[in-house]
Amino acid sequence: MLEWLLRRPEVDPQRVAISGRSFGSYATTLAASNEPRFCAVAVSATCFEPGFHTIFEEASPTFKMRFMFMANISDETTFDEFAKTLTWEGRVEKIHMPFLCIAGGSDELSPIENTMRLFGALPGPRQVVIYEESRHSVGGGVSSAMLGPDVTALAANWLAARFSGQTFQSERWFVNNEGNVTRSRI
To answer: Which pLDDT tens digit goes with each residue over 98-129?
Structure first.
């Protein structure tokens, strides 16, 4: 896809980013690990648990059934073995472009610890924004998302800054239930 984009006269090859949400956060991260020409990565509603145990075994069975269908695997035992191979481990170390990660602190589909492990393994400039008490899809009426930075605007402005060449310090942001942002450098 990137090759096709770069052949388009209206595309600036220095301003192509990749973004993903939910399962797309995982696919986006893998794509970025194999394609250094992206200028930035932005993900939200993260799915970074290696093997996806929580979403496949503890959440609604529709998640697992849908993924089995997409993987063209009808036998659950075979799929369970396949799921063990679904990991970012050993890949994210190749991502050197700026990386934005927006996640809910109470994600019921992919525990936040996995997002923080991935974030710690990234070698390039990175920013993680954690919304207190927010679930998988950041928002949903929790006060951190209602009173804190708007998720869509945050991601759009962050990408615009990368497109304009602005640099930033690697940081962790924590948005509390009052909407206040505590920033800490990594």
So the answer is: 999 999 999 999 999 999 999 999 999 999 99
Number of folded domains in the chain?
2
How buried is residue 58: exposed, middle or buried, by Cβ count under 10 Å (0-12/13-18/19+)?
exposed
Could you give the dihedral angle defined by the CA atoms of residues 184, 165, 115 and 61, in that order, rounded to the nearest 10 degrees? 140
pLDDT digits (tens, 9 = 90+) for 3-61: 999 999 999 999 999 999 999 999 999 999 999 999 999 999 999 999 999 999 999 99
Q: Are 186 and 170 in contact (CB under 8 A)?
A: yes
Residue 139 CB-density burial (10 A; 0-12 exposed, 13-18 middle, 19+ buried): middle
61 and 137 part of one domain: no
Among 36, 50, 37, 46, smallest CA distance to 95 is for 36
Which structural domain range is residue 57 located in? 50-87
Q: How many CB atoms lie within 10 A of CB 153?
A: 9
For the question of whether the overall pTM of this predicted structure is more than 0.90, the answer is yes
